[in-house]
Design goal:
Helix 2 packs across helix 3. The protein is α/β, with parallel strands linked by helices. Strand 11, helix 4 and strand 12 form a beta-alpha-beta unit. The two termini are 24 Å apart. The strands form three sheets. An eight-stranded mixed sheet has the order 1-2-4-3-9-10-11-12, sandwiched between helices. It has a two-stranded antiparallel ribbon with strand order 5-6. The chain is built from five helices and twelve strands. The protein has a single domain, classed as Alpha/Beta hydrolase fold, catalytic domain (Rossmann fold, 3-Layer(aba) Sandwich), CATH 3.40.50.1820. 31% of the residues lie in helices and 30% in strands. The structure holds D-malate. It comes from Methylobacterium pseudosasicola. This is Phospholipase/carboxylesterase. It holds the Pfam family Abhydrolase_4.
C-alpha cells in the first residue's frame, strides 16, 4: 500500500494505491467531503483482488474535498470540471505507467460518479468502464464521445433529493447514445450509499467479460 502524490508536469494528486491483479484495476472516486481512504473497503468487496487506485479530489469546498468546483448543489462550474477531468485523465495515465496497471474501471460515488461520467465523455479512452453511484449529468452539452461497447452501471435513488429522476435518465440516454452498454437501476433509496448498491455493483463487476487490459 502506498500513499503519495504522482507528479506529471505541474500535476499532482494525493492518492492511495493498493496493489492487486493489474489487468483490471478499479479507479475509486469519492463523494463530496470524502477522501482517498473512503472507498477502499468498497473496492475490495466489489472487485476482490483487483489493484485499487484512489485519488483525493483536489478542490476544497469549505474544507470538503471534491473533484471539481460547483456553483451550487447540482450546478457545476463546467470550465473547472473540464480542467479537472483532464487532470484526472493525466493522473490515470501517470499511475498506469508507475504501477504497471491496465485501463481502470471507475467506481464513483456522487461527486466522484459525476467526474467519472465526465471522464467517459471527455476522455473515453481512459476508462474500461464505470460503476456510477448516484450520478447526474456533468456537462450541459456533452461532446460526441465514442464509448463503443463500454460497460456502464448506473445506480440511482428513487428518493434522491440531489439528483432528479429526469436528470439521471438523461445521463443514461447520453451515455447510450455515445455507444456505451448502459445498465441503469433505480433503487428505492436516497442519495446515500446502500447495501443494495454494494450487492448490485459486486454482481455486475463479477459478470463483466472485459477484454484483457491494453
Ligand atoms: C456534485 O456536486 O457533484 C453533486 O451535487 C453531488 C454532490 O453532492 O457531490
Amino acid at each position: 500500500m502506498t500513499q503519495e502524490s504522482l507528479t506529471q508536469d505541474a500535476f499532482t494528486l494525493i492518492h492511495r494505491f493498493e496493489p492487486g491483479a493489474a489487468a483490471r484495476p478499479l479507479l475509486l472516486l469519492h463523494g463530496t467531503g470524502g477522501n482517498e481512504h473512503d472507498l477502499l473497503p468498497l473496492g475490495r468487496i466489489v472487485a476482490p483482488g483487483a489493484a485499487l487506485l484512489s485519488p483525493r479530489g483536489a478542490v476544497s469546498e469549505n474544507g470538503m474535498p471534491r473533484f471539481f468546483r460547483r456553483l451550487a448543489e447540482g450546478v457545476f462550474d463546467e470550465a473547472d470540471l473540464r480542467r479537472r477531468t483532464a487532470d484526472l485523465a493525466a493522473f490515470v495515465g501517470a499511475a498506469r505507467a508507475r504501477y504497471g496497471i491496465g485501463a481502470p474501471l471507475a467506481l464513483g460515488f456522487s461527486n466522484g460518479a459525476n467526474i467519472a461520467a465526465a471522464l467517459l465523455m471527455l476522455h473515453p479512452e481512459v476508462l474500461a468502464g464505470a460503476v456510477l453511484i448516484r450520478p447526474m449529468v456533468p456537462l450541459a452539452e456533452p461532446p460526441a464521445a465514442d464509448l463503443a461497447g463500454k460497460p456502464v452501471l448506473m445506480l440511482s435513488g428513487a428518493m434522491d433529493p440531489i439528483v432528479p429522476a429526469e436528470n439521471a435518465s438523461r445521463l443514461a440516454q447520453q451515455l447510450t447514445a455515445a455507444g456505451a452498454a448502459v445498465t441503469h437501476r433505480i433503487l428505492p433509496v436516497g442519495h446515500g450509499l446502500s447495501q443494495a448498491d454494494v450487492s448490485l455493483a459486486t454482481d455486475w463487476v463479477r459478470g463483466l467479460a472485459l477484454p484483457d487490459a491494453a
